[in-house]
Amino acid sequence: MLTVHHLGISQSDRIVWLCEELEIPYALVRYDRDPVTRLAPAEYKALHPSGAAPVIQDGDVVLAESGAIIEYIIAKCGQGRLTIPADSPEFPDYLYWFHFANGSIMPSAMVGFVIGLLGGQDNGVAQALNGRGDNAFRMVDDRLAQAPYFAGQSFTAADIIMLFPLTTMRVFAPRDLTPYPNIRAYLARIAERPAFQRAMAKADPGFTMPMA
Ligand SMILES: N[C@@H](CCC(=O)N[C@@H](CS)C(=O)NCC(=O)O)C(=O)O
Question: Can you give the pTM of this predicted structure?
Answer without folding.
Answer: 0.96
